[in-house]
Backbone:
């Protein structure tokens, strides 16, 4: 059954449309806007439900000239992700009003959350590389706004900037990867199909892979996409932004930073898996995923804050999914899809529970919390289900998907020759899982044991806060009891879409009934975890002591070092390039222009003298006497400018040069050009005369500066000379086609005899419009710079007023000092 | 530079310059000229006034308003009118480009009509491009005069 374009478009655009009117909703509904958001999310969920079971591509032309379209591809994997996004979105919107009670900036919060939901559904469904990139970056932008929700908090700003830098930077890698992919795909998908059509590429995975390898682009594209996915899905060593992103309000953490946005990388890895499946793929993603899974599980044990613990745990579980997709067997696809599904349910619930704990106790520190089951009995019950699922304890849902990973690691060597990685993968997977069990038990222990004295009175949470985690926990419980139900409902369809070999494969999960290596691995992981739990505090302390002893081992240290260095270097460069002195600006601008122009000539081989250039032809130059006279007068005026002994004399002689050029234009029968030159020359002369009164009569100029100015003048002159030579030489002999077109069409189509004017206002009026905007912008910026200069800093205005008329003189003398430095 | 010679010359020259500028604007489609040249020429006329009579002359002498003398550019100078002029000009240019869209032609496409038997001219062409050119003129005059009056007041 093919999908319905109108339905798909409605699902993607509805959240954006409502995001646009959020300020109005806030005005009429106030804090209840969250429920409107929940309604939008539920609407999307229901519409997506109608597409259940459909598969195919629908598209809407967007930029036909570039073959870019709003192309959507619906299949089991896309639907699974989109349904998760809208479903969890609805629960998070339902949870938000009670949690965000009394906060300001709700319009921004809900608008960003809605726009985010639209983008994530867009990523799930889009099949056009450009559209995927667009939605990809939109999610990063929304995440930036939401992490930095507390705009007056420095740590929140720091976290938002970090997330932006890492995820948007990763997005740029993805863009380059996409462009390379499209470059190769052009020949494969054939004419009539856009090179950006991912669905068409997925139809021919083997041809694509062969073509990529032939072009030598297989590893580069794989690497670029891997960097993008790793930044988005917080894989080691780019995982550090995720724990910092916990500065966002908790519903945001539950939605963006556990259930959906961070899964975009995983989702995309699953999506392109059939294209890239190979030994390189296994080594790259299985290693990346298992390393992330283990390192982040260790860091989660080292966490001191409940949201920090959950954040590292999220990164660790994302590593598990990436590792699953990294194995090319069908078990790998089952691991990735099923764990993505399970994790979205239990981790979103855990975040919402963490929000309840923080809301009711006022603290998020692990060592200040304990024995909460007396005050929060319902929450404790829900936590037991989802925390045990997170730890992968049978018979909870997380167990099944982790069991699949163990099987995949064991079977990996059957498909590829992995060398020592053959036994290393299973060992690392088990080692990482031990810590998963540890921190899951630690989170559950918040509700048991003795209640610290500092927690004297814990409020009961309002029922509305409990609804969302309860729904998620109930779903987790259903999956735990009957995993086959989830498999039949949606997971099987997702596995079919991400499997490398499209052959039908029935997926079966359930509690093990006989011994297999995977069962043994699970037993070792859970047993060691439970046995090590009594020593949790010492393990916690020893892991914490490592980054303290060796700071460069932490990725955060590198981030800080690099950004600080960039800031310092930027400031240093700024002080060199724009230091407030006009001559510095002129030097940089002119040098850069000349160098770029000359480099352009060299790059296009234009600088090479044309073959058959005959110096003798110069003697035959046919120059009218009048033109020669005018031009030599201009040269004399140019020499006089340099030797003029006062500013006024210099300006007047300079304008002689300008007027001579105008006369030359008249001689060359270009009256419009001459008129413009004359008028502009006059105006410039007058403005110069106005300004010259303000310039000091005489100032000291050092020899080095004179040398620099002379070199610059020679460079500018040489560039202009070469440009004129090359451009006039390159002009085709006789009348070019475009010139003929203009001459022939000016009167009948433009209705004007003045071709220059007809070109300006008719044939190329769009250019003229652009130039008009430039003039307007220049005027506005000068107005802003000068009139509003004094407004920003009130104190400087006061000083200037106190000094009265002398302000200008002191300003000048300051500039003079600057010149002579 | 506010000498008697300068003032007397300005009195004679400025009206001529303005008329030439306007004729350049209107005739620009068929003869040398156009919105840009006319705009720059008009600005030059204003600049001559500024030089001959001082920055406050337009306000005090022509418009009869009262302003504080001094060097700081204030918000109630003619600058406001200039600023409005280039905004209006940009609007004219954009609207003249949008009208063809409403008539199902591409953005900024132009046309013209020929009128016969008009007094004095007999044969007159009216090009829609004139509206666009008027926009160009207004932007150039407004933009340049804004810049000049603000910088000149410094």
Residues:
């Amino acid at each position: 059954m093919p999908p319905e374009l109108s339905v798909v478009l409605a699902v993607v655009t509805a959240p954006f449309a409502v995001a646009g009117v959020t300020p109005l909703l806030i005005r009429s509904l106030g804090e209840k806007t969250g429920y409107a958001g929940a309604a939008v999310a539920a609407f999307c969920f229901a519409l997506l439900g109608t597409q259940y079971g459909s598969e195919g591509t629908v598209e809407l032309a967007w930029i036909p000239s570039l073959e870019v379209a709003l192309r959507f591809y619906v299949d089991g994997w896309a639907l699974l992700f989109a349904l998760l996004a809208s479903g969890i979105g609805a629960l998070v919107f339902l949870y938000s009003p009670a949690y965000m009670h009394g906060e300001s900036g709700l319009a921004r919060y809900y608008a960003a959350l809605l726009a985010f939901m639209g983008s994530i559904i867009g990523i799930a469904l889009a099949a056009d590389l450009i559209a995927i990139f667009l939605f990809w970056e939109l999610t990063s932008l929304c995440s930036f706004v939401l992490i930095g929700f507390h705009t007056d908090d420095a740590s929140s700003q720091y976290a938002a900037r970090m997330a932006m830098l890492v995820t948007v930077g990763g997005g740029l890698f993805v863009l380059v990867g996409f462009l390379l992919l499209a470059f190769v795909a052009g020949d494969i998908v054939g004419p009539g199909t856009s090179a950006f059509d991912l669905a068409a590429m997925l139809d021919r995975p083997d041809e694509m892979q062969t073509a990529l390898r032939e072009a030598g682009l297989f590893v580069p594209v794989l690497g670029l996409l891997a960097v993008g996915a790793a930044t988005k899905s917080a894989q080691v060593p780019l995982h550090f932004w995720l724990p910092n992103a916990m500065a966002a309000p908790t519903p945001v953490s539950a939605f963006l930073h556990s259930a959906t946005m961070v899964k975009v990388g995983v989702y995309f890895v699953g999506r392109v898996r059939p294209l890239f499946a190979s030994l390189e793929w296994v080594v790259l993603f299985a290693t990346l995923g298992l390393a992330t899974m283990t390192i982040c599980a260790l860091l989660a044990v080292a966490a001191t804050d409940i949201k920090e613990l959950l954040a590292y745990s999220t990164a660790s579980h994302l590593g598990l999914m990436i590792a699953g997709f990294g194995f090319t067997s069908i078990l790998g696809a089952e691991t990735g899809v099923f764990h993505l599904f399970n994790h979205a349910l239990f981790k979103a619930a855990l975040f919402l529970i963490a929000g309840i704990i923080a809301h009711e106790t006022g603290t998020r520190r692990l060592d200040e919390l304990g024995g909460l089951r007396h005050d929060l009995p319902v929450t404790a019950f829900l936590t037991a289900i989802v925390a045990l699922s997170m730890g992968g304890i049978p018979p909870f849902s997380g167990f099944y998907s982790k069991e699949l990973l163990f099987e995949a690691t064991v079977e990996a060597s059957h498909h590829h020759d992995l060398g020592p990685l053959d036994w290393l993968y299973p060992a690392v997977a088990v080692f990482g899982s031990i810590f998963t069990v540890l921190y899951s038990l630690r989170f559950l222990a918040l509700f048991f044991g003795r209640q610290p004295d500092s927690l004297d009175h814990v409020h009961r949470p309002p029922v509305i806060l409990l609804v969302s985690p309860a729904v998620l926990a109930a779903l987790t419980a259903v999956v735990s009891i009957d995993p086959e139900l989830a498999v039949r409902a949606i997971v099987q369809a997702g596995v079919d879409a991400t499997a490398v070999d499209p052959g039908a494969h029935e997926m079966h999960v359930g509690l093990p009934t006989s011994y297999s290596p995977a069962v043994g691995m699970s037993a070792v992981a859970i047993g060691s975890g439970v046995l090590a739990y009594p020593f949790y505090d010492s393990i916690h302390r020893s892991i914490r002591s490592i980054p303290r002893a060796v700071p460069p081992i932490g990725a955060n240290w590198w981030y800080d070092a690099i950004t600080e260095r960039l800031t310092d270097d930027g400031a240093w460069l700024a002080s060199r390039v724009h230091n407030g002195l006009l001559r510095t600006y002129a030097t940089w601008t002119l040098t850069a222009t000349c160098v770029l122009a000359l480099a352009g000539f060299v790059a296009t081989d234009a600088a090479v003298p044309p073959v058959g250039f005959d110096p003798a032809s110069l003697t035959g130059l046919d120059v009218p006497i009048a033109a020669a006279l005018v031009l030599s007068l201009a040269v004399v005026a140019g020499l006089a400018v340099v030797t003029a002994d006062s500013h006024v004399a210099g300006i007047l002689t300079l304008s002689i040069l300008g007027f001579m050029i105008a006369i030359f234009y008249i001689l060359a029968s270009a009256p419009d050009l001459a008129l413009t030159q004359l008028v502009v020359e006059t105006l410039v002369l007058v403005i110069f005369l106005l300004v010259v009164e303000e310039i000091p009569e005489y100032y000291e100029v050092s020899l080095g500066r004179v040398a620099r100015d002379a070199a610059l003048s020679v460079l500018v002159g040489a560039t202009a000379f070469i440009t004129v030579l090359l451009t006039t030489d390159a002009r085709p002999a006789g009348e070019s086609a475009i010139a003929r077109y203009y001459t022939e069409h000016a009167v009948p189509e433009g209705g004007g005899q003045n071709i220059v004017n007809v070109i300006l206002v008719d044939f190329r009026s769009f250019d003229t419009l652009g130039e008009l905007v430039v003039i307007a912008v220049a005027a506005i910026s000068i107005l802003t710079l000068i009139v509003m200069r004094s407004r920003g800093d009130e104190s400087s205005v006061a000083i200037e007023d106190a000094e009265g008329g002398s302000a200008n003189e002191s300003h000048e003398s300051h500039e003079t000092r600057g010149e002579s430095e | 530079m506010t000498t008697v010679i300068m003032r007397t010359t300005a009195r004679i020259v400025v009206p001529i310059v303005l008329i030439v500028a306007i004729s350049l604007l209107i005739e620009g489609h068929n003869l040398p000229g156009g919105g840009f040249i006319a705009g720059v020429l008009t600005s030059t006329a204003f600049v001559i006034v500024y030089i001959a009579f001082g920055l406050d002359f337009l306000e005090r002498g022509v418009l009869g308003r009262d302003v504080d003398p001094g060097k700081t550019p204030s918000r109630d100078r003619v600058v406001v009118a200039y600023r409005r002029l280039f905004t209006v000009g940009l609007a004219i240019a954009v609207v003249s480009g949008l009208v063809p869209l409403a008539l199902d032609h591409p953005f900024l496409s132009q046309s013209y009509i020929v009128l016969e038997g008009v007094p004095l001219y007999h044969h007159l062409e009216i090009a829609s491009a004139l509206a666009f050119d008027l926009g160009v003129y207004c932007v150039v005059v407004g933009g340049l005069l804004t810049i000049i009056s603000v910088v000149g007041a410094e």
Remarks:
- The mean pLDDT of chain B is 79.
- Helices of chain B lie at 4-27, 35-53, 57-62, 79-102, 129-153.
- The first strand of chain B starts at residue 112 and ends at 118.
- The two ends of chain B are 17 Å apart (CA to CA).
